[in-house]
Amino acid sequence: MTEMAGLKPTHFKWEMAGSVAIIQLDNPDRKNPLTFESYAELRDTFRDLHYAEDVDAVVFLPNGGNFCSGGDVHDIIGPLTKMDMKGLLRFTRMTGDLVKAMLACGKPVLSAVDGVAVGAGAIITMASDMRIATPDAKTAFLFTRVGLAGCDMGACAMLPRIIGQGRAADLLYTGRVMSAEEGERWGYYSRLIDTDKLRDEALNMAQRIAAGPNFAHSITKTQLNHEWSMSLDQAIEAEAQAQAICMQTQDFHRAYHAFVAKEKPDFKGD
User: Fold this and answer.
1) CA distances from residue 49 to 36, 53, 80, 143 in whole angstroms, order as listed
2) Which of 121, 178, 193, 207 could make an SS bond with 139 (beta carbons 3.0 to 4.6 A apart)?
C-alpha cells in the first residue's frame, strides 16, 4: 500500500493533519490557477490515494484568499489555441481523469472555498463529496465565457444532480457567478463559514469523518457515485450487498460492543 505522509509535490502544497491530507494550489498572486503540470500531478496524487492507508480524508483549502482561478490563461489557454485535435483531446481527457481520480480515490473529499472558484476550480469543488464556503466565495462554471461548451469535466452530468437541472443550466449556459448565498440555498454548499474560521471548520469536519469507520466511508463514496446510473431496484440491491460487507468488519463489531458498554467506539477502518 502507498504511504502519502512524505509526499512532496512540485505543483501544489501538501500537508498532513493526522490522517487528513490538506491540498492547496500554490500561486496566490494569480489566484491559484491550474497548469498542465498541476493537473497531471493532482490526477496522479488522487490515483495514489486509492491505495493510501495513512490518509482517511482530503481537504482542499484556499490559498491567499482564493480557491482556484481555473486554467492558467498563459500556461494553458494560449497553448491550447495552437494544438491540433489529437493534442486537444489528450488535454481534455487528462483533465477529466482528475475528476475520475477524485471520484475513485476511496476517500471523502471536502472543498473549503474562499474567493474565486471558477472554471476548473469550480469543477474541483463539484467533484468533491462535500463543500463549505465563506460568504465571499464566488463560483462560476465560466467555460461559455471563453467560447467553450458548459459540458467540461463532467459538469453536465454532476452539477444537475447537486443543484437541479434548471439551476445547472443557468450556470452552464451563462457562465455567471453563483454567489455564496445562492450556493448554500441551492445545496451546493452545505454551510457558510466566516473566513477566519474556514480552515478550522474544514479540518474539524474532515477529522470527524476520518475518526469514523473508514472502510465503510469508502463504500459510501462508491455507492454515492455508482448509484447515479442505477435503477431504484438496482440501488437497493447494491446497498444490501454493500451493507452486508460492512457488517463483516471489525468496526461494526466495535460499534456494537461500545454501545453495549455505553462507550464511544474506536474505529480502525478494518
Assistant:
1) 20, 8, 29, 29
2) 178
DSSP H or E run through 169: helix 165-174
Query: Residue 60 forms beta bridges with which residues?
Result: 23, 111
Separation CA 179–CA 136 (nearest Å) = 8
Q: What is the pLDDT of residues 88-136, one digit of tens each?
A: 999 999 999 999 999 999 999 999 999 999 999 999 999 999 999 999 9
Domain-located, residue 136 = yes
Are residue 169 and residue 250 in the same domain, yes or no?
no
Q: Is the pLDDT of residue 1 over 90?
A: no
Instruction: Find the distance separating the first CA and the last CA of the chain, reported in whole Å.
Output: 15
Asked if residue 201 and residue 232 are part of one domain, the reply reads no
Grid coordinates representing 230 are: 442505477
The answer to the question of residue 243 being in a domain is yes
Tally of structural domains, the chain? 2
- Kindly state whether residues 195 and 243 are assigned to the same domain: no
Establish if 268 belongs to a structural domain: no
Q: Give the pLDDT mean for 255-259.
A: 91
Nearest to 45 by CA among 97, 92, 119: 97
The predicted-structure confidence for 209-249, as pLDDT tens digits, reads as follows 999 999 999 999 999 999 999 999 999 999 999 999 999 99
pLDDT in tens, 153-183: 999 999 999 999 999 999 999 999 999 999 9
